[in-house]
Inverse folding.
């Protein structure tokens, strides 16, 4: 468990290196989510996206990246919203320990 000051005011990790799967569970729990295999698949995909592009994806690039890497069934907004309600790019990035996507409020 990380202390509260490890997070910014929006609940995002201040340091990428603090992220672990347990931290992901801690963040998800605070958001009312229990992580499933489907969540972990997208979390790993988000972390790969960040490594590849050095930024967290907004929704449209996330959908395209999911379709490219996981197939058209999972590369759909409705699928991502079923896992990460509200703003999948924002919530998924938060749980994946990444910075808030630039164009997310």
């Amino acid at each position: 468990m990380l202390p509260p000051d490890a997070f910014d005011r929006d609940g995002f990790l201040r340091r990428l290196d603090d992220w672990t799967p347990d931290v992901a569970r801690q963040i998800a729990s605070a958001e009312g989510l229990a992580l499933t295999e489907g969540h972990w698949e997208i979390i790993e995909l988000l972390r790969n996206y960040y490594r590849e592009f050095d930024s967290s994806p907004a929704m449209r690039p996330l959908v395209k990246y999911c379709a490219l890497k996981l197939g058209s069934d999972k590369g759909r907004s409705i699928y991502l919203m079923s896992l990460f309600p509200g703003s999948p790019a924002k919530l998924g990035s938060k749980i994946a320990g990444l910075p808030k996507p630039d164009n997310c409020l």
